[in-house]
Amino acid sequence: MANVIDIVSLYPKDMNIYGDSGNVLTIKRRLELYGYEPRVHAYNQGDDWPERVDMILGGGGQDTGQKKIISDFYARADLLRGLAADGVPMLMICGLYQLFGEYFETIDGTRLDGIGVFGAYTIGRDVRMIGNLVEHSEDFGQIVGYENHSGQTFLREGTQSLGRVEQEGRGNNGEDHTEGARVDNVIGTYMHGSLLPKNPAISDFLIRAAAERRYGGFAPQSTAEQQTELARLDQFAQEARRVAIT
Ligand code: GLN
């Protein structure tokens, strides 16, 4: 029997824009191709928290979406912080990346406190940062995606960014060339795209971390057919990345 990996898709109803659900589909498919059995649990406000969690994927959302989830999010803050500290791999895009920081002050002056997994804060501005985003990351090489946000995020001293913006894009704030944040196995980023179909290295990092934490190691058991399919997905990723790089 295949080893199960339990994935939480965090607030997919309100926090899932610009195709971020593609991240969940990608993780699910790659896990299957590696011979694991993925179980995806959609978690929305008021739902029961799943018994077992090996990975958490969260997407972006409008300011209004962020306000809708915020009280449930606070109720889950200790749990999420605990799982992050315990090494659960997580990927938080844009709106949820902002809320994994210390606070987000929206353009209308509302302050939404975050859960402080990242030493970072975000200020809403009246200029949107939109377009392809290409960055270099020490851990993952070149990362390619698409950004669309008006919040400017600033990392506190000592907070590691996910990458450094190269020729394309604005990144965390359009000023200091940083993009995203990383703490242990938790990644926050402005990269939509969807991110994971275009960046297999990040998918595989999340999968490996989940398998190692639950089973003590990552032991893919792909058939020849599955290996061919994985190679095809990597080929698609290359093509999608090329389109984004001008
Ligand atoms: N509302 C946030 C902003 O505009 C997040 C947007 C998003 O998730 N794309 O900064």
From TrEMBL:
Taxonomy, superkingdom: Bacteria
Reactions catalysed according to its record: beta-D-GlcNAc-(1->4)-Mur2Ac(oyl-L-Ala-gamma-D-Glu-L-Lys-D-Ala-D-Ala)-di-trans,octa-cis-undecaprenyl diphosphate + L-glutamine + ATP + H2O = beta-D-GlcNAc-(1->4)-Mur2Ac(oyl-L-Ala-D-isoglutaminyl-L-Lys-D-Ala-D-Ala)-di-trans,octa-cis-undecaprenyl diphosphate + L-glutamate + ADP + phosphate + H(+); L-glutamine + H2O = L-glutamate + NH4(+)
GO molecular function: carbon-nitrogen ligase activity on lipid II; glutaminase activity; transferase activity
Residue intervals passing through the bilayer: none
CobB/CobQ-like glutamine amidotransferase domain span: 6-199
UniProt keyword annotations, A-Z: Cell shape, Cell wall biogenesis/degradation, Glutamine amidotransferase, Hydrolase, Ligase, Peptidoglycan synthesis, Transferase
Annotated active site: C94 (nucleophile), H192
The protein's annotated pathway: Cell wall biogenesis; peptidoglycan biosynthesis
Role played: The lipid II isoglutaminyl synthase complex catalyzes the formation of alpha-D-isoglutamine in the cell wall lipid II stem peptide. The GatD subunit catalyzes the hydrolysis of glutamine to glutamate and ammonia. The resulting ammonia molecule is channeled to the active site of MurT.
PANTHER family to which the protein is assigned, alphabetical: DETHIOBIOTIN SYNTHETASE, LIPID II ISOGLUTAMINYL SYNTHASE (GLUTAMINE-HYDROLYZING) SUBUNIT GATD
Family listed: Belongs to the CobB/CobQ family. GatD subfamily.
Name of this protein: Lipid II isoglutaminyl synthase (glutamine-hydrolyzing) subunit GatD
Species name: Bifidobacterium eulemuris
